[in-house]
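Fold this sequence, please.
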Amino acid sequence: MLHRPLDARYDTMSYQRCGRSGLLLPAISLGLWHNFGEVDRYTHSRSMLLRAFDLGITHIDLGNNYGPPPGSAEETFGRILASDLAPYRDELIVSTKAGYRMWPGPYGDGGSRKYLLASLDQSLRRMRLDYVDIFYSHRPDPDTPLEETMTALDQAVRSGRALYAGISSYNADQTRRASLILQSLGTPCVIHQPRYSMFDRWIEDELIQVLREDGIGCIAFSPLAQGLLTDRYLSGIPEDSRAALPHTELQREHVTEDVIDRVRGLADLARARGQTLAQMALAWVLHKPEVTSALIGASRVAHIEDAVAALDNRHFSSDELERLEGILRV
């Protein structure tokens, strides 16, 4: 049955301009990295995606290798789009990426024109789309000339398979060079997707300045530090958490007693602000003027609702920021 979205879906979400482009993104975007693969329950994935749209989350972020297995998140999204959201395609910003290993052999990884454009064609078929709104180079490839990678993004846009070009996980120098190449081709880099949170602030050294100077928007992934910046770790490492599982980015040895002490201090500050720790962590990322959107993951509808509620209080007083910095320096 076709989903009937809420009429008030745009009333409470904040939409922010992506750099100097004409593109507006919701302050909270939904990533399908986890919990939307073939191994996940389809009805649960569908419920989360439809609730996100009802809350004004118009940007859905994917990658060719999202699943598991790789590609299956795009297939799940394509199925939900076809069955429930097809009439609303023009209200959605759909992004995908290529850059990590996707298929065997020499052409299924990296940043070559061959791989990027072949991957984009496969992604479009999986999602049942004619085009994506944003196509990213998922990571820099040291074995491919940057000019070739950027020319492939330019071709994706000029061919109509993507509307905008973006990059992810490029450092400041790589971003500056990529931006200059794309500008020379007439297809500006509209957006950069770096990891950014209170526990991972590498972009503040140089990258934010490059984004500001070149008019590139910023969408922060892992703003909750793989779940560390939530209430889950206040009493240690839960056995069903990411830190307790093998083969995840957040490893048990990263969650030291010092880290947990800082999480507890941040949680106290969040409570004083009338927020959950996750809400404060999202508000903190978004209070940076260069950040267009915070990209969240979710394993249940309540996570999405909680994230959107963070927008009710995005302001930090100077005293709160000073206290927060003191906690992080400990």
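The chain has one domain: 15-329. The chain has ten helices and ten strands.
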